[in-house]
Structures are given as structure tokens and as C-alpha cells.
Amino acid sequence: MHSPTTFLEIVGEPRHPAPLDRAALVLIDIQREYLDGVVPLENVQAAANEAGRLLELAREHGVPVFHVAHGSGPGAPVFATDGPYIEHLDPVKPGPGEELVWKTHADAFLGTGLVEKIRATGRDELIIAGDMTHVCVSTSTRSAVEQHGFRVTVVGDATAARDLPDPLGGVVPAETVRRTALAELADAFAVVVKDHTAWL
């Protein structure tokens, strides 16, 4: 049996991560809701720590940084804008000069003005990390590529997921959810790297 090949490899797409001098960093939904709120994720603190290392790298190299946060409005069952769980986790709190963009959909680009903000930097590649791997990271990556023409690198260990009910019976473990979502993105949409050391 031969080793599997991704669609991106078959069509000859480059497999190197986004060059730091051409990329913008997009950090998605690294918020308290996923740590100690209604929908805690497996290994979310470790993923946030890795995203923090990625953020430090971006700052050192002058990479434009965009923090995306989900807000569902006051009194919402998750990501309530009048509650404490919309706060960013400590390793990725926005710094001076870094854009904070609020979203209400899984797609970080839908109705947020994020595309225009990134275009204004002159960058044409994205480095994406955040939560959840299988929802907002996956949806935003696909949108970035398919709808907006960016080339994307996803940093796998800077993303997190949770156990999901299997509609065919049982439970899909969080790590299986995360790894499957990353494999899908790597197959046809993005370069996927393990962590920030891809740029060291």
C-alpha cells in the first residue's frame, strides 16, 4: 500500500510555511469561554501557550497581528459580551498596535472587515491559529483560501478541540477531532505545521 498524498501535493502547490515578511498572523477566539466557560477544550491552555510563542515571534519580526474574538451579545449562553468569558487568555492578550476584530460567525472574515484590514498591510499570506480547530479555524482557513485568495499556514499545536458526540454512535475524542480537522486542511487548503519552530 502506497503512502497517501494530499491534493495540494498532487497539484504541485508549495509546501513551505508562510514567509514572515509576507504574512499576517490571525489568532482566532483564544478566549476564556474555551478554558473555564461553557465549552472547555482539551489542552486549550497548552494551545494558548503555543499561540503566545507564535505571537512573540510575530512581534519580533514585525508581522502584522490580528486578534479575532467571538461575541454573541449580552446574555448569550456562550460568548456573552456582558460576561467574563469573552476575555483573551493571558498568552495572547492584544498588544499596542494590534487589531482586535469581533465576529459573530464561525468565519472570521464574514462581516468583520478583516479582509480589508489585512489587505491594507500589503501581506498576501496568513498564519492562522486558535480555537476551535474544527469550527472557526477550519471555516476561516477555507474562507481565506477559497473566498479571498490568501495562501494560509495553520499552526496545529496552537489550536484546540473538544470531544464531540458521534452522530453514528459514541464519542469522537478531542484529539481525533483536532487531528482530523488539520488533516482535512492540509489535504486541500493550507500548509499545516506543528508549531512556531517551523520558522526557527
Walk me through what this model shows.
The chain has 200 residues and is an alpha/beta fold. It has a single domain (20-199), classed as Rossmann fold (3-Layer(aba) Sandwich). It is 30% helix and 20% strand. The protein is built from six helices and eight strands; from the N terminus they run αβααββαβαβββαβ. β6 (164-165) and β7 (171-172) form a beta hairpin.
The biggest beta sheet is recorded as: 6 strands, parallel
SS content category? alpha/beta
**Tertiary shape:** globular
Just give the CATH class: Alpha Beta
CATH architecture: 3-Layer(aba) Sandwich
Strand order of the largest sheet: 3-2-1-4-5-8
Give the topology.
Elements: H1 7-10, E1 23-28, H2 33-36, H3 44-60, E2 65-70, E3 99-103, H4 114-119, E4 125-131, H5 133-146, E5 151-160, E6 164-165, E7 171-172, H6 174-188, E8 191-193
Parallel strand pairs: 1-2, 1-4, 2-3, 4-5, 5-8
Antiparallel strand pairs: 6-7
Helix pairs in contact: 5-6
Care to give the gist of this entry?
This protein has six helices and eight strands, in the order H-E-H-H-E-E-H-E-H-E-E-E-H-E. It is an alpha/beta fold and about 200 residues long. The mean pLDDT is about 95.
Looking at this protein, list some descriptive labels.
single chain; 200 residues; alpha/beta; Rossmann fold; 6-stranded parallel β-sheet; 20% strand
